Amino acid sequence: MNKEKLFTASLSEDDEKVEIHDIRRLFYVAFFGGVIPLVGLAAKLARQLKVDRKTIMLLAALGAVILIGKYAIAFTLFDGQPIMDRRTLSWIYKAGSCLLYLACYKVMKEKFAIHIGLGGEIKPILWDALAWILAGTLAEAGIAMFVSWLASIL
Predict the structure, then answer these.
(1) Long-range contacts: 4-8, Cβ < 8 Å, 24+?
(2) According to the 3-state scheme, what is the secondary structure of the chain?
(3) Global pTM value
(4) CB atoms within 10 A of CB 64
């Protein structure tokens, strides 16, 4: 084995410099935007941090379960057999989104710390978060229309 290669730098100035968002700011996306924007931005950040693909898919599946649960309960609200009122459903959904944020944070925390420790850049999240929140709101409106149409034919 050549001992000189052990002490050569593995990264050079020409390597890809990655600017990512601060993962702690995803909490605001989860609280104000919900599951869809959180999963979208968290998946993007996880790919940039090189998190395992199966882990990213697991987080997306957890988000889908939370979203399906929300609309399953909403279906009972509009069916005339309410399990809870709309306000309670809204707060439970926000709590589920925040719990999903905690799972995303736990998954990305170590790799984010390594990124920062190696001098990685952090960019502002505001505009990307607003774009994802708008897209998530439109997607949830579409899902809500589909659920109400489904409730009317059943």
Answers:
(1) none
(2) CCHHHHHCCCCCCCCCCCEEECHHHHHHHHHHHCHHHHHHHHHHHHHHCCCCHHHHHHHHHHHHHHHHHHHHHHHHHHCCCCCCCHHHHHHHHHHHHHHHHHHHHHHHHHHHHHHHHCCCEEECCHHHHHHHHHHHHHHHHHHHHHHHHHHHHC
(3) 0.83
(4) 13
> pLDDT tens, 22-35?
999 999 999 999 99
User: Residue 72's Cα: distance from chain center in Å?
Assistant: 21
- Closest listed residue to residue 59, CA positions, set 100, 113, 115, 6: 100
How many of the other CB atoms lie within 10 Å of CB of 70? 22
Helix axes of 35-48 and 26-33: crossing angle, nearest 10 degrees: 160
pLDDT given at position 57: 97
